[in-house]
């Protein structure tokens, strides 16, 4: 089955009309007459479901995945990102890929959408204890990295999210060190499970979920999955990342899902599937992806390298 995405209003409606419609919608939201409208990136893609991932799993209802988010650029509360998604300046968007590679390059959104996009159902586990199962539309990060030809010195990959303090008021506050930065070891980045996602539930990513392009690394805690990425850098040394800088005793660089390594302030043994009130699910090592990724960490002490 093919997922054909509806063309966003901004492509078929004159700007003056959709802007006033947006203002009208905002007024309705402010008056409490509507819940906030979903602001999506303006692109279309075709994606083929890949049945090798998540076959038979029960999906989390989309409304939960779209309305309970962490995206500090759009606010610190779980409901802020959906409410403030309209602040993200989505067009034009490009991703600069540089550093230790032979062919550094800027990929426009159009170029990114030419990678082979497929739909995969993944489990997602936040370090704070909630989890969900959702279909992402995206392509393997390794396809993009192969195009820039990493050199032998490329040992790590750094992901930088949008930095636009003029548009994103949160970035004028020292809430986190901006831009939001994450990293992976090169073999983790090259792993076929590691996706650059452009869609969720068959539609272009909503602002709150990291439009127009974000990382998804399903065996790691959600904070590794940087949203609204503008720069990818290949580097030789393990980079400093946002949450390691913020609280190194609480968040490690690897951040592999591991029920046996508690967060200093809470246990990681169980998780709360979004839509449920209880921690009804047992958390699995590597979020259940151990058969595919455990070999990456052979011989490593996962308590030390948490
Ligand atoms: N990326 C950016 N740029 N800023 C953020 O605050 N939060 C992270 C991650 N990526 C974050 C981010 C955290 S803590 C989580 S759990 C996931 O995004 C949440 O992804 P979701 O809202 O799509 O579920």
CATH fold group = Sulfite Oxidase, Chain A, domain 2
* CATH-scheme architecture: Alpha-Beta Complex
- Which residues sit in consecutive blocks of at least 5 with pLDDT less than 50? 1-19
Task: Estimate the strand proportion.
Answer: 15-25%
Total domain modules: 1
Give the terminus-to-terminus CA distance: 40 Å
Order of helices and strands: EHHEHHEEHEEHEEHEEEEHEEH
Q: Looking at the structure, what is the overall shape?
A: globular
Main sheet record: 9 strands, mixed
Kindly state the mean pLDDT as a whole number?
91
Number of strands: 14
CATH class: Alpha Beta
CATH-defined superfamily: Oxidoreductase, molybdopterin-binding domain
Count of alpha and pi helical runs: 9
Briefly note the structural class of the backbone: alpha+beta
| Bound small molecules, deduplicated | ligand MTE
Assembly category: single chain
How much helical structure, as a percent, in the residues? 10-25%
Radius of gyration: 19 Å
Task: Give the SSE layout.
Blueprint lengths: L2 E2 L4 H4 L2 H16 L15 E4 L12 H6 L12 H5 L9 E6 L5 E4 H4 L5 E8 L4 E11 H8 L7 E6 L19 E5 H4 L5 E6 L2 E2 L9 E3 L12 E7 L6 H5 L23 E4 L7 E2 L7 H4 L13
Parallel strand pairs: 2-5, 3-12, 6-13
Antiparallel strand pairs: 1-2, 3-4, 5-6, 6-9, 7-8, 7-12, 9-10, 9-11, 13-14
Bound molecules: ligand MTE.
The site of ligand MTE has 16 residues, from loops.
Description of the molecule:
There is one protein chain. The protein has one domain (50-296): Oxidoreductase, molybdopterin-binding domain (Sulfite Oxidase, Chain A, domain 2). Strand 5 (118-125) and strand 6 form a beta hairpin. The chain is built from 9 helices and 14 strands. The strands form 2 sheets. Strands 1, 2, 5, 6, 9, 10, 11, 13 and 14 form a 9-stranded mixed β-sheet that branches. The model is unreliable at 1-19 (pLDDT under 50). The termini are far apart. By secondary structure, it is α+β, with helices and mostly antiparallel strands.
């Amino acid at each position: 089955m093919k997922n054909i995405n509806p063309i966003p209003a901004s492509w078929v409606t004159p700007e003056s009309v959709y802007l006033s419609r947006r203002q009208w919608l905002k007024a309705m939201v402010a008056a409490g007459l509507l819940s906030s409208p979903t602001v999506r990136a303006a692109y279309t893609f075709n994606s083929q479901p890949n049945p090798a991932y998540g076959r038979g799993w029960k999906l989390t209802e989309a409304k939960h995945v779209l309305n309970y988010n962490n995206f500090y650029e759009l606010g610190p509360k779980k409901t802020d990102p959906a409410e403030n998604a309209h602040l993200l300046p989505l067009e034009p968007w490009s991703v600069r890929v540089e550093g230790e590679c032979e062919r550094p390059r800027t990929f426009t959104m159009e170029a990114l959408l030419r990678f082979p996009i497929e739909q995969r159902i993944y489990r997602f586990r936040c370090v704070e204890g909630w989890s969900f199962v959702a279909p992402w539309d995206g392509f393997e990060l390794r396809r993009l990295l192969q195009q820039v030809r990493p050199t032998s010195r490329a040992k790590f990959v750094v992901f930088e999210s949008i930095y636009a303090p003029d548009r994103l008021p949160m970035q004028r506050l020292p809430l986190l060190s901006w831009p939001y930065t994450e990293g992976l070891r090169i073999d983790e980045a090259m792993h076929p499970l590691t996706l650059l996602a452009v869609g969720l539930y068959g539609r272009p990513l909503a602002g709150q979920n990291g439009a127009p392009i974000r990382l998804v690394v399903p065996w790691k805690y959600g904070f590794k999955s940087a949203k609204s990425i503008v720069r990818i850098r290949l580097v030789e040394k393990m980079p400093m990342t946002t949450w390691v800088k913020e609280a190194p005793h609480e968040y490690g660089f690897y951040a592999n899902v591991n029920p046996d390594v508690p967060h200093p302030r809470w246990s990681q043994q169980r998780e709360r599937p979004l839509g449920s009130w209880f921690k009804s699910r047992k958390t699995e090592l590597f979020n259940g992806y151990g058969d595919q990724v455990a070999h990456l960490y052979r011989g490593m002490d996962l308590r030390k390298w948490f």
